[in-house]
Amino acid sequence: MKVAIFIPCLTEHMYPETGLSMVKVLRHAGIEIEYVHGQTCCGQPAFNAGYRDEIIPIAERFIRLFRGKDYVIAPSGSCTAMVRVFYRELDIDAALRDDLDDLCGRIFEFCEFMVDVAKVDSLGGRFPHKATYHDSCHLSRELGVVAQPRKLISSIADIDFVEMKDSDACCGFGGMFSAKFGQLSTEMVARKCENIVESGAEYVIGADAGCLMNIGGYLRKNHLSPQTMHIADLLAKSLDL
Q: Residue 49 and residue 99: Cα distance in Å, rounded?
């Protein structure tokens, strides 16, 4: 099995280790990796800010770059949802419509791919710590990916996995939302972090860098002990990759 990987902006510029972890885990599972050169942002930040016409060239370029690939995998539910769900709302060149429809059936978030496509039940790792999981909005609501991350986490030996209260409540990031509505965003992430602390977890696991950046920033600023970790990094660490 061969996959092309898409590395989102936050992963590339702020959490490159997460992209590397995803590659290591995929290779550990026997999956061949292809990196598509020339890839750029999927256009989500501009789309969410209302610049829907302006991102059409970005979307069309993305479609051309990744068309024909067996699978496209990204360590981000929000960026995967941007392509699979929201590209369909754009006035894409009619000549690319079939390519977009095909791509929408072949692009997957990392956890979704591992469980639903690669059929990975357990990678055999070990992580002797207490952890909880944050459901990011686009991953859970737009893609319906809820059970798959939990299956991967629970398969790790010696992990003490606990559910936090309101695990699917928004953390308040939302890209431009956190910039435009700072006070509201802060109240939302404060409530999220309160639930994380109450769970007793040492680590809060997530599948989107934006959420983890927002949650991690609040935890550190307020000297709270839980640490954030992307699920790709968790799996790689559990396997000592």
A: 26
